[in-house]
Predict the structure.
Amino acid sequence: MSAPLSDIAVTRVRPELPANAGLWLLRHIRGDPLGLLGLSLVALVVFCGLFADWIVPYDPFKIDVPAMFSPPSVQHIMGTDNVGHDIFSRIIKGSQIALFVGVTSIAVSLLVGLALGLVAGYGPRWIDNALILLFDTIYSFPAVILGAVVMSIVGPSLQTLLFLVVVIQTPGYARLVRTATLAKKNSEFILAERSLGAGPLRILAIHILPNIVGPLFIIGSMDIPSVITLEAGLTYLGLGLPPPAPSWGRILYEGYNSIFDAPWMVVAGGIPLIITTLGFTFLGESLRDMLDPKLRRMM
């Protein structure tokens, strides 16, 4: 005869991490070459973003016509553009824009997606169907096309760009949370909690939320370079941040227009995008391997 629900041990299924989780994560990353490389690249980008105003060798907005189209040299490591801006200084300053757009938009998208996913997965069926319809509708539009339409109608600005990224990214996170919530809402420990009188908020906050925050955070960190690339792509198309913002996409756009006079501008504009993409991707994959219980048991 099976035991009544009240006798079933109510446990929370979450990855078991050591008490000193931070040190444990750092030790593991040191043992993973790609993870260590990713951490180093991310640290470089973050350092440039935080201290850009103090480490730029030149004013990134200063126009120096006599120095226009100067090739890379000791004085200008990555050369100058069509109005004499020091490209290296603009790339460092542009890391502030990239990090702000990437981190802020992803953080808001994670919070909104988490809330909507929990409601869709644990709430009534009609709410779930309505939210899934909304997510599918947003998914039906290609990101770049949707961005181009919104920017053309509203006008390019930082606020519009952040709103656009949140709209594009939120459905993906909400679907992931919804799937995880549906998979756990009928688990034995959830049924036991219900039989003991636990309400939906307690179940979501104590038992379901801790199991999905970790993987969701890792996925969000790996999406940051995608958002930065989207911003650069829209700016390259003339639909992103307006000048004189030192966006990496604007450096690429100006380099393309002057590719025969200053081909080094295109190369310089692509380097930070490559570094950021590789850094967040390698670091995110390393963290995913550490936080996934199945993968950790195989290590």
